[in-house]
What does this fold into?
Amino acid sequence: MPEPQPVYFTEHQVRLAATGQPDSAGAFEILCITAGNGNGWDFSPEVLQASLSLWEGLSCFIDHAWFSRSVRDLAGQVVSPSWDPDVQGIRATLTAFGPGGDLLTSLGREVLKSDQPAKVGFSADILFKANGKQVTEITKVLSLDLVYNPARGGAFKTALSASYERFINMPKPDVNPQEQPNPTPAQPAGQDQQAHQVMLKICENLLETSLAAAKLPKPSQDHLRKQFSGQVFEVAALEAAIKDQRDLLSELTASQTVSGPGRISQVFNEADKLQAAVDDLFGIQRSEKLQGVSVPPLSGIRELYLMLTGDREMHGGYHPDRVHLATTADFTGLVKNALNKIVADQWSLLGRAGYDWWQNITEVEHFSSLNDITGTLIGTVGDLPVVSEGAEYTELSVGDSPETASFVKYGGYIPLTLELIDRDQTRKLKAYARELGSAGLRKISKLVAAVFTANAGIGPTMADTGALFNNTAVTAAGGHANLLTTALSISAWEAAAAAVYNQPMLIKNAVGLYGTGPKMAINPKFCLVPRALQNTAWQMLKGEFVREADYVYDNVLKGSAVPITVPEWTDATDWAAVCDPAVAPAIFVGERFGIMPEIFVAGNELSPAVFMNDEHRLKVRHFLAVWVNDFRPLHKSNVAG
It folds into this structure.
């Protein structure tokens, strides 16, 4: 049986819509997330319940941010998350709070007054791990943001209650918190008391979050906790108090500070951050350099396109006055880089599934031009003749057997339409790249497999005029003696291995020298079979025992060769033997611009494709050459069906 493959976990980010309605205190009761499919990812109830604590104290901001958060955008805070078994989701309370709280409240009212479908709602940023598309762990909830046109339509449900408004507008004691460390405000009653408790909880969370971010020494933190704990306070008052503590510490420690040369461990520019965000968008592994970059997730390909082109009208153009990022990165270049990484990932995944079988039996060579290839096999010296005393040395008979090949260009294009971008079909674009990676690997697999199946199973014609596989004696011109017709078995494998081992090395393709070289003396390492013979090959070359009709004995062939299944072979009975290419190379794969296919993305407002078809073009190109340099390390059995 094949060995089990390892499971790889990759961290992902996604934005999911949340819905809300007010509770009795006037704060929004929201449904943060429910079990099921969200933006293509499957969230189970168990995973959601395990993340319950991550939603406590979550901040709500006005709109998504690209690179950093500002306290000016703070609009509220999530408290008291709980599991709702009826809807299989996480419920919580979202209370308007901070500089953006008024905007959160007013937008809610305006939305509810309108008869038109609302385009304002909530979107949660989530960091998680997944196995395939199955989420295995939510590692962090970044924020819950009020956005325009959220991904899945999270919306205001009803207006905030009057009791909450009464609490917000309640007269505050005319006391400066810095003058009175522990003020005791009047305690409201009824629904106002419930709202007061919610605000106290939010202020406690905000206090702890602010102190952790301030990184003040413990005495300063203790002082601020004593000053603000157990009360409702304004954000500005807390910020002012933290600043006062920093100024005080600066004055006290200034005389003790010794400045030395600074050391920079890592520097990231806007292009690095953008590349990291694009890698995350397409779900691919970041480069080692970008592992430490912290950026908010992109919502989709549409956001990336508009961010880098400013082309809100979807004309395919570039509008620098609308682009505010200080980077020279362009949309097509970033997408091309990401898609090429997906091709590489798909290449690796499909290879582990068996389509990289050809790498075991071939030599891959890089070429610097597309000129025709001459693969020369140099003959060996059969024997050194005796040289008598005083006699002349004679010329040794050494020749070559030149095999030729030409590069072939493979490729095509897939349209990246402006409709696809505007509809934010990032998953479809990723699927395109995976298909291109699969097509490239399958193409090489097909070309190498055809070496054994071309011309009704006897392969291409060699430079010595003989078919690659024939049963003509090697002492005749074009004779290869590497073709049998016996079905795969232990005895048949032994016969093929012996034939390969006894193949005479090339001296020179000339009368009198055919087949006169010394034995190659190399056993084949790989047994190539179709899927129909896979079990037979495994039992023969990997099994512990040989089972005959009357008795069982130890398998002496175990480990002597490696069985390989060739996906493209359709004949259920043919098989082949191949030597290790590191010792006796036979089949070569030539590449010009890399063994994997290249992806290009082309298109701007001047491109005919953009003008005529509203599409950028995703082009794939692959230059390959496959040829056989020597017949001796190969043996074929064409078995009648």
In short: The two ends are 27 Å apart (CA to CA).
